[in-house]
Amino acid sequence: MMNRNKEKIYLRAMFVLLIALAFSSCIDDNRNDCGEVNIRFDYSYNMLSANALSGQTNYVALYIFDSSGTLIMKEVSGNIQITNDYAVRTSELKAGKYKFVAWAKSDHLKADEADFKIPDMTVGASVLTDLTYYLKRTAGTQQHELNNLLVGMTDVEINNLNTTQNVVVPLKKINKKIRVLLLPYSGSSELDINNYTVSIVDRVGNGHVNYDYSLLSDEAITYRPYYAANIVPQTAEALHPDELQKAAVVELNTSRLLVHAVDTDNPRLQITTKDNGTEIVSVNLPWFFSLTGMESHKSWGLQEYLDRQDEYVISLFIDESPGTLPENAWIRATIIINGWVINNIPVEM
Q: Do 256 and 307 form a contact (C-beta atoms < 8 A)?
C-alpha cells in the first residue's frame, strides 16, 4: 500500500512538472531562442490623443495567449501608482505569434457595484474567449458610480533575435460619465430634482464587453443617477434676485455607448415627471452628442468620438412658468453640451 501511495505522489509530481514546462516555453537548457520582451500600455485613445494612463488606474493586468488561444502567461500589478511608463518585462516567450490582452482599472470606489465583473483567468486552462467584462446591475438597472476600466489587445509576433522587443498594448476606456443640468428659463423660478426622473435607456444592452472592446449580446439596461442634488449659490455669493437661484443636477455612469443603424436601438436620454410619469424628454443620445464634436475631429466619425470622449455635460433649460403644460415645458429649450449651445431643439428626437 505504501509503495502505491509513493507511486501516486511521484506520478502527480511528474504531471505538475510537465505542465510547468509546457507553459514556461523558455525554461530549458538552451536560452538562445528566448529574447526579452518589454510591454507598455498606452491610453491615447482619448480627446487629446496623448497617453493618459497615469491618474486613470491603479491596477494593470496583462494576459498572453498563444496561437491556439490558450492563456500561457499573466501578470497583474498590485495596487500601485501606475505611470505612463509602466511596463512588464518577460524573457519566457519563444518565437511565435501571440495575443497580448490587457485591462487597467482604478479602485478609488470601494463598493462592489463600482466594478465590472472580471473573470479569474488560469494559466494553461483559460482561453481567449473566457475574457469578457460584465457590468454589474440589479434587475436590469445600474445606478452606481463606476471605477475606470480600460481594455485593449494587440497581435504580436515574437522574433527573439537576441534583442529587446518592444510591444505596446493600446487601451480604450469603457465607462462614460454624463452630467445633466436642469435649469429654469426664468432666473427667479426654481427647479426641484425630486420632481423628475432622469434615465439613460439602452434597449439593446451595452454592459457586456469583449476582450477586444467590442460589445457582446446583453439585456436591456436602464442607467439611473448615482448622484442627484439641488444646487444653490454659496452663502458668500451675492446674486441679483432675477438671476438663477437654484439648479437641479444629476450624474450617471454608463458602459460604452454604441451607435446603431436602427434609431430605436440607440441609447436614449429620458426625463419624466414623477407625479404622473409624463415624458418630457426622449432623445437619441449618440445623435445628441454628435452635435458637440469639433470640426477638427470630424475625421474620427461618430463612434470613434463617442469612444474617445469619456465625460459629457448636458444643460437643459425648462420653462416652468405658470400655465405651462408639462408636455410643452421643453418646447422653448436651449441645450448646452460640453459648452456648445444648441437652440430650438424639438421635443422628440
A: yes
Residues 6+ apart with CB under 8 A from 152: 41, 101, 102, 103, 169, 170, 171, 172, 213
Per residue in 2-19, pLDDT (tens digit) is 455 555 444 454 544 444
How big is the chain, counted in residues? 349
239 near 188, Cβ under 8 Å? Answer: no
d(CA 81, CA 284): 38
Tens of pLDDT, residue by residue over 250-303, are 999 999 999 999 999 999 999 998 998 888 888 899 988 888 765 556 789 999
Taking the C-alpha atoms of residue 218 and residue 267, their distance in angstroms, rounded to an integer, is 14
Q: Look up the pTM and report it.
A: 0.83
Residues contacting 155, CB < 8 A, separation 6+: 97, 98, 99, 100
Longest CA span, the chain = 95
